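Thread: quick sanity check before group meeting

JM: Hey all, I'm pulling together slides for Thursday and realized we never actually wrote out the predicted structure for the chain we discussed last week. Dropping the sequence here so it's in one place. If anyone has concerns about the input, flag it before I start.
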Amino acid sequence: MVVSIERIARLPELRSPIVAGARGAEREIRWVHVSEVEDPTPWLQGGELLLTTGLRLHSGDELAAFVRRLSDAGVAGIGFGIGLEHETVPDEMLREADELGIPLLEIPVDVPYISISEAVSNMLAAERYEAITQAFEAQQALTRAALAGSGETLVHEISRQLRGWAVSTDGSGRPTAAWPNAAAANVSELLPDLMRARHQASPTATAIVADGASTVIHSLTTDGLPRGFLIAGVDRSMGTFERLVLQAAVSLLTLESERTRVLNSRLRRLQADALRQLLRSRKPPFDAGRQIAGWNLDPLELRVAVVAVPNDAAPTALDGLFGALADHELPGVACQVSSDSRGAQLALLVGSDLDLDMLFDAAGLPGSTVIGIGESVAVDELHRGYRTAVNAASIGRLERRRTTRFDELPALQLLLRGEESATVRSFATRVLGPLAAPVTDAKSIELRRTLDAFLSANGHWNEAAASLGVHRHTLKARIGRIHELTGRDPDSAYSRMELWLAVVAEGAIEADD
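JM (edit): ok, ran it. Output follows.
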């Protein structure tokens, strides 16, 4: 039970009735403070029962201003001793206390202030002991709920113990459990507070008090990162019991969040390993369809996307893909397929009808990302679907486009669809000649870079020279040398088309291998 001004006023041994400001009688007392200075507010924190005899206060204006200062400082109440400087409580104090709603006790001269301090101290100790006892029982109930059920069960028990409402959210503020269910609607109003808490370096708690109701936001933090939030509200002020219950609830929800995160991380690693094997297998295992169905994907309607990012951005990009799938509650699996000097290659397996543009925007991929989207395939053609995504990414890299779809590349389809790698490799070697991969000597590497830049610039000399950082005359000399080595003039539209197809086909074969 809260230690209030009214409870102190009812103690018969203190004989200190409330003589003004009765509407604030339920204010909670945090401590007792004695002062005879004109302005004790620098030494107050709020919630005190301030005891004084008004020795330095004489005029009515001084007495009224004294009450106003204490009210502004948030004291719980004023105990005014009579029989020394003042025979009765001055009328100016009575009127001001009634107007402000701050309770004013009349303390007889024979009632020692120490007896009031002891009474409040004993009550606070008893209240805290009772709250701790009740909180211990509540913690046991919360622990049983955490062990026996899911996050929904735990949130339900938190709400029951608080006799209020409770909502848990993920790190982005999306509700994951609420009791009662309608409480989830409260989160939208608190989103600004949640977003501020996300950027705090340590676990935070925010209290909001309005119209007699209290709402508290606790961050669920592990490894210095907010993994979620617990939001709880009651239609009264929160005391020691409620605070202890919330502390236990935050610990249990944090453990549950971390356990779920670790399990999800392990599941993601297992799924990523399985996806890598499926993409590399020209003939998928007999149970591949059942495995993909277990990922909530239709084995007959699949699409692979290849995401090329810088090596140092790969972990964050992979987390972003999984996060986007989770936030939109969409099935899908992602993995890192390879990493070399050109960067890392990620693969994403989803349903063929998914809006991938929306998903990639939500994943927050870096600006230098190149995306290739393969054609729709069934599970037994998954390797081909992956290969078409690689082909599309190769075109995107050459064309300097962020997203390229294989379905939009009929010329490449004609060249690659249904052809064996040996046939395509023969075509690339025949067209590129000495500049076919792999090139090892410095001069050939320089010429190959020049060819790639010239093709990417679509035959525009100035653009190609600028991208290479060379003079136009230097570029012209190199193009002449490429003409000699390959027998094809890059300045010719038809020859440039053949060279371009050979470079793309070569890149597709390398990825396929």
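AS: nice. DSSP finds 17 helices and 15 strands in the chain. The mean pLDDT is 84.
JM: adding both to the slides.
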